[in-house]
Specification:
There is one protein chain. This protein folds into two domains: 117 residues, 2-Layer Sandwich (Pseudouridine synthase); 132 residues, Alpha-Beta Plaits. Strand 6 and strand 7 form a beta hairpin. It is an alpha+beta fold and 266 residues long. The radius of gyration is 19 Å and the shape is globular. About 14% of the residues have low confidence. The longest helix is centred in the first third of the chain and has 12 residues.
């Protein structure tokens, strides 16, 4: 069932679960737009006999959970999209990363490019053709001994991340590039199925273990190109924007739960 944080005649703010596409999905696979439309029909929030309008304002990667806002009218979609373009929509993420960042608080500025197929991004030199600036800031909230998760060779850190730009897979790529890949990120960092916590979570999911894979963060190899099920410890935990009609500033926050986040819960 759709988890609704707020709804009025113009917008709908919901929680996207990990494993669900933000927009269209493969046939018979769940996606947020379909769930939102279903919600609008059931709650009679649209014109009878007509397909509900749902404006997609922003996206989250499939393995990522978090707060999302959808527009119920075209004017709301236009106003919210303008906020995204002008960087007035603020997103804060909470993540669990391998290791401990060098500084408790820092700002990363890198340059990134996407591969021709558009499914992989990497940090490159500024002068590379097609490179785009990628900037984020982070704050380390807590660091624990990895032994708790069956990883004695590394610490685990809970970090709060604020995006300044919105590049493809930006958080995943930049954190891995700087030596602290996201927990469970098979594409850019350490594969799932390599810790006690992962093995417990994935026992019934058929996740294949990438045995002995300890590649350097950010290096794409056959063992970490994203095959299998991804369970990434990344949550869009806070979203701030101005209401498209009233212009009132609105902030919605959630606490990440489950998975690696449970290691940091008191």
């Amino acid at each position: 069932m759709l988890k609704v944080l707020y709804e009025d005649d113009e917008i709908l703010v919901v929680i996207k679960p990990a494993g669900v596409e933000s927009q269209a999905a493969k046939r018979f696979a769940p996606d947020m737009v379909s769930e939102v439309k279903k919600h609008l029909v059931i709650n009679k929030s649209c014109t009878p006999g007509k397909e509900p309008y749902v404006g997609v304002i922003h996206r989250l990667d499939k393995p990522v959970s978090g707060v999302m806002v959808y527009a119920k009218t075209k004017r709301a979609a236009a106003a919210l999209s303008e906020q995204v373009q002008s960087h007035n929509m603020k997103k804060i993420y909470t993540a669990v990363v391998h290791g401990r960042p060098l500084d408790a608080v820092d700002n990363y500025v890198d340059y990134m490019v996407k591969t021709p197929d558009g499914n992989y991004s990497q940090v490159v030199d500024k002068g590379i053709n097609g490179a785009k600036k990628a900037e984020l800031s982070y704050e380390v909230l807590k660091t624990i001994d990895g032994k708790i998760a069956g990883m004695p060779e590394t610490d685990l850190s809970l970090v709060r991340i604020s995006l300044k730009t919105g590049r493809h897979h930006q958080i995943r790529v930049q954190m891995a590039h700087h030596g602290t890949p996201l927990y469970g990120d098979m594409k850019y960092g350490v594969p799932v199925g390599t810790t006690k916590l992962d093995k417990k979570e994935n026992a019934d999911q058929g996740t294949m273990k990438a045995a002995g894979n300890r590649n350097m963060p950010g290096i794409r190899t056959a063992g970490n190109m994203g095959s299998g099920r991804e369970s990434i410890a990344l949550c869009a935990s806070s979203l701030t924007f101005f209401h498209p009609v009233t212009k009132k500033e609105m902030t919605f926050e959630i606490e990440p739960v489950g998975g690696a986040f449970q290691l940091f819960q008191v």
